[in-house]
Fold these 2 entries.
Entry 1:
Amino acid sequence: MSATKPFPPLKNDLILRAARGEKTERAPVWVMRQAGRYLPEFRAERVENDFFKICRTPELATKVTLQPIDRYDGLLDASIIFSDILVIPQAMGMTVEMVPGKGPHFPDPLVHPSEMPAKLKEKVDVYQELQYVFDAITMTRHALDGRVPLIGFVGAPWTLMAYMIEGGGSKTLSKAKEWIFKHPKASHELLNRITDVCVEFLVGQVRAGAQMLQVFESWGGELGPHDFEQFSLPYLAQIAKRVKAALGSEAVPMTVFAKGSWYALEQLSEIGYETVSLDWTHDPVQAKALTKGRVTLQGNMDPNVLYGGDEAIVAAVERMVRGFGSTGRYIANLGHGILPTVPVEAMELFLKTVHRVGLEVAAEESKIEIASNVNIIG
Ligand code: CP3
């Protein structure tokens, strides 16, 4: 499939405008991990097909990407391509399996730095190894028919390195941390190699049709401030800079999500991303004060509020949207991915409430603006 056929015109560019810092008529909304495990139509697809088979088959990835867009018709302002952060370790030569009910499993993880030459490809041809993601993006962009923008993504280098060493999820990340403390030089080499793949992969995703990009540093908060500054931040910064340099005038807005790294919010707002995604440990007003309008903020309701019943959801959305404001530099989202057992109705209420409160707050904000203009003139 080629990206040369023109894409359908975009009918809803709210999220792109919010990311660029333009005023919006209401806060756009989407939800991390919105396509997938909590949706009955996705679970039905998974009975038929292995997780990575869905990722690798553009028709299936397109179908699953569109599932939440169709189900919550008109309520979502963005789609995110169905894939996984772990396609990069696969492209680098590692085997990753998705064990139902358990999560990712690397049968042969990186145990010691001396194994890098044997377990990782010297050169990764992104256009060969990950062409299936580019094809899925191009096909999805056509299938979306301009309803909402399509977000591409990668896992950040530290998070991917940690998976490659731990071999799956971990409570302590003690193996990956042993690397950074005992083998800092080899750790930086690995982080650099992953960064190179991330950059090329993101550039390819935009050329294939992605209209916005997100970098997931899901395990950022496992590092303290000092180690985050050594082993995460420089690579996140490189990614933004190099992707933008490669794309030039074709560059698209980029979001960084470093979960748990509350201490790094100011730094994250100064390294070249248009948007910083926040987990629920941030207070909206404080986060806005710290970042001083330099970036658009995205987030940040605790995904577990979706288990709290209607009243709790409405109250939390009210607090969130009123805290961040609705028409300037804000994208509503959860503070992390939606969880697998959330009822679909709770997600619907979340989205509808963001719309309702967003419009109310927007009306209040425009009144305040008119009043202040009158004051200036008067
Ligand atoms: O709408 C979407 O966001 C779908 C695309 C998407 C998936 N994974 C699909 C998926 C995205 C953006 C991701 C990102 C991802 N993958 C992250 C970063 C976001 C985060 O939550 O911090 C991480 C850490 C992973 C790694 C990963 N993939 C884990 C830990 C797991 C198992 C637990 C889980 O989340 O279900 C996966 C599997 C996975 N990725 C599923 C889906 C739909 C479920 C797999 C299945 O169907 O068996």
Entry 2:
Amino acid sequence: MPAMHIDIIAAIPDLVREPLQHSIVGRAQEAGHVTIEVHDLRDYATDKHRQIDDYPFGGGAGMVLKPEPLVRCIEACQSEAPADAVVYLTPDGEPLKQPRVNQMSMHDHVIMVAGHYKGIDQRVRDHYVTHEISIGDYVLSGGELPALVLVDALVRLLPGVLGDASSALTDSFQDGLLDAPAYTRPAVFRGHRVPDVLRSGNHARIDEWRDTQRIEKTRTRRPDLLDNELGDELEDE
Ligand code: ADE
């Protein structure tokens, strides 16, 4: 199984570099499950000020990332072969859901474009970007943190990355239900007891209790999830 390769193109590369060195994503790189390269968009500017943004045509507030450095960088990332996906992180993109993450985790090469300022030139979106993804209905100051979110969601699904092979499958959302509550020692914490069933050793009863908890939690917190069958959302592709 070849390792996945992820290129992150960023206006502020330092925002993503350090977080990628830690935890599951850091260990996945060390173990060779994924290679991640962070590109400083400014390195692809050709003028002496290394300018990557400019005023919007038509006026208005904010700066727009220029097409030339961005496309040069996207092309450099694909100099050997086209990527499977060129993802632009943007609040007006497709809301990120687990089925999309599952699908992208099968790719060999994903490029992520983290914009800044007022966004990127629309022509890059039209002709070079293949997927536009939002991580939620709120506006962040750039796409760097959303790119980290997508990297984390993808990498933990790669074969061999999670120690317990079943744990990615039992996550909230993998089967359309939220997770059951989790407890660890002590059995009594400041007077609050762990549910007896979890200490009973009866695994059939424990599974049943967890299923009931998951359904009940989903019904009260996210009734919208109960209307969606897993995978429905990607059916139209
Ligand atoms: N860039 C700024 N806000 C964003 C969001 N919510 N999702 C993805 N990219 C973004």
